[in-house]
Amino acid sequence: MFKGILIEKDDAGYRAALHDIDESQLPDGDVTVRVSHSTLNYKDGLAITGKGPVVRKFPMVPGVDLVGTVEATSHAEYKVGDAVVLNGWGVGEGHWGGLAQKARLKGEWLVPLPKQFTPQQAMAIGTAGYTAMLCVLALERNGVTPDKGEILVTGAAGGVGSVAVAVLSKLGYTVVGVSGRPEESDYVKRLGATEVLERSLFSSPGKPLARERWAGAVDVVGSHTLANVCATTKYRGVVTACGLAGGMDFPSTVAPFILRAVTLAGVDSVMCPRPDRLVAWQRLGLDLDVAKLDLITNEIGLAEAIPMASQLLDGKVRGRVVVDVNR
């Protein structure tokens, strides 16, 4: 038996609760992992609260991230005792995820835990940080270098935004953050931002084109925010889009793309191929100041993840939430 959060949906309704789970209930997979830490992401908040149609089968253990040690394996690349990390691949949605003390998974979903990080640090990064690194790689791939100008990061006090600010600033970019929480401005600046702008400047309908400012951007919000970011991006600038915290719509025009040659680069972390994941984690080991993880991280126990999910969706959580599944 092991402890885990189980989401159930039946005639009695939709509910998430901490349960004792028999190992025989674990889904199919060729690697069984003894989980040490997981995280709480926006998608996990939707799953636990039922406020979004995230979970595709029931019962479900949520948690799109996990880190732990291999307990049993029939996969050629792993042996018992290996430290491994998982991000995405639909775990916590269609396959049992990381908010439990054990998980059974497909070996091709896993990557080795980078030696630069402890398990807790790896989850302080988690899907949010790994997604932020994919955005940085997309900016680099499209030719955005520090000398090109300012980089805008929306949702800068959140999980993706916090890591994006920290990584970009260490790489020498001039970073401007956007946040709906003025009280978090000092926090975002401590991560490396030179300026923090109020979310309201971007969240309402704007002009098809506005004054050029950004050489690049990392957007986690979508909707009017993404449209306004594109409208204020410089000629041949690059905007990476990886989230929808403000909505799935994109009320824009083609003007930024055909008049300023702006590139809108989509970033997906869930089904990202394994070679790209390995590069992202390698770069995180080089380009993320580990000392800043203490600023970003809030650690909780497994049972605390359920009430914390609502706070996360309400935008009341700073940075990253790491879940110690064994307390």
UniProtKB/TrEMBL annotation:
Residues 13-323 form the Enoyl reductase (ER) domain. Coiled coil: none annotated. It holds the Pfam family ADH_zinc_N. InterPro entries: Acrylyl-CoA_reductase_AcuI, ADH-like_C, ADH-like_N, ER, GroES-like_sf, NAD(P)-bd_dom_sf, Zn-ADH-like_protein. It comes from the Bacteria. GO terms for molecular function: acryloyl-CoA reductase (NADPH) activity. This is Putative oxidoreductase, Zn-dependent and NAD(P)-binding. It comes from Candidatus Accumulibacter aalborgensis. The gene is yhdH.
